[in-house]
Amino acid sequence: MCSHSSSHIPTSFSHGFNAHWQTIYPHLQRSFRSLYRPNKGLLAHLKSSDGDVIPYLQWTDHSRPENQKDLVILSHGLEGAATSDYNLEAAATLHQQGFDVWAWYMRGCAPEMNPGPLIYNSGFTLDIKCLCEQANKQGYRRLFLIGFSVGGNITLKALGEGLQGVTAAVAYSSPLVLGDVSDHLSKNFDGFYMKRFLKSLKEKIIKKEVQYPGSMPVNKLSACRDFYSFDDHFTAPMHHFTSAKDYYDQSSSIHFLSSIKTPAKLISATNDPFLTPSCFPDPAAHPNMQFYYPDHGGHCGFGHGKESMAEMALDFFRQMTNFDR
Q1: ∠253-201-157 over CA atoms, to 5°?
Q2: What pLDDT is attached to residue 3?
Q3: Domains of the chain: which residue ranges?
Q4: Which of 152, 103, 158 is nearest to 269 (CA)?
Q5: What secondary structure, in 3-state letters, does 186-239 show?
Q6: What's the number of CA atoms in the CB half-sphere (13 Å) around residue 113?
Q7: What region, left, alpha or beta, does residue 98 occupy, with left being phi > 0 and alpha being psi -120 to 50 degrees?
Q8: pTM for the full model?
Q9: Distance between CA atoms of 82 and 69, rounded to whole angstroms?
Q10: Nearest partner of 146 among 88, 68, 207, judged by Cα
Q11: What distance in Å separates the CA atoms of residue 6 and residue 284, rounded to the nearest whole number?
């Protein structure tokens, strides 16, 4: 395995055709391969500290006790799921390498709506903290985290908030500055990506209103034509922020990077169509972390014909722990 690192802020960014192709084509490839993958994980549930339910898929080697095994927890991206193609591909690779794997559903993203009143937001760290606490209670030898896109933002923010018991973590294609990314996706590419996400986010609000009649101002949904208006009317008040700007400011992991004590690495491509230059912090300003800013890879499209995202993460985990597998 080769080692990857960046020592400087990128100076050029490309959002041309290849950026979109390298984002979409790997997704199609992984989705196709998942059709022929026999082990898609077993569904389990964990009660969160606020009384809600966290569903997650688990791939477990029952031939060994937890204290002889390592666990990787996977966190999906915006409007993704435990069954997202990048999660299933990573889980298959990691499980073949001898890891137990948990891939969890953020609130509102499971096939059945979570029973509590909240859906997730891009900085909501309570559930990943509950999962890590459970993993440490079960006595796993080492615990690793991999977060994709928004899952990466949540992972880094949780570590910066002081999450304990994690050996190392990798975040891919992470929107470290939520306000900038929200504005970028709303104004660029004819809103192609934003419209897709916004449609499913609105559907979640309607489902929550069915569960909790009168809790959601659903009459405002039609006026939400970008992320900011949706977050201002729904995400912010639901999670007790004063506004969308307040939500973005408090939930962006860029503000938490300097507080991370756990070995962590950010991997983001400079042709990622989702990210803005502000999502590529200066490695020199954060010597506690590692960074890798390749020219290609799109948004979570790394590994096409080369080293997969799981293998890239394993390379970093090996560097941090000196284990062989």
Answers
A1: 10
A2: 59
A3: 17-177+262-321, 182-251
A4: 152
A5: HHCHHHHHHHHHHHHHHHHHHHHHHHCCCCCCHHHHHHCCCHHHHHHHHHHHHC
A6: 17
A7: left
A8: 0.94
A9: 22
A10: 88
A11: 10
Phi/psi of residue 86, nearest 5 degrees: -70, -35
pLDDT per residue over 134-181, tens digit each? 999 999 999 999 999 999 999 999 999 999 999 999 999 999 999 999
Surface-to-core class of residue 78, CB atoms within 10 Å of its CB (0-12 exposed, 13-18 middle, 19+ buried): buried
Instruction: Determine the Cα–Cα distance for residues 55 and 24; give it in Å rounded to an integer.
Output: 27
Structure tokens at 223: 């006026």
Q: One-letter amino acid identity for 237?
A: P
Q: Which CATH class is domain 17-177+262-321?
A: alpha beta
Tokens of 17: 């055709």
Place of tokens 């997202």: 84
Token look-up 């400079």 returns 270
Place of tokens 């408090």: 250
Instruction: Centre a 10 Å sphere on the Cβ of residue 218 and count the other Cβ atoms it contains.
Output: 16
Tokens for 266?
Answer: 């950010």
Angle between helices 17-34 and 85-96 (to 10 degrees): 60
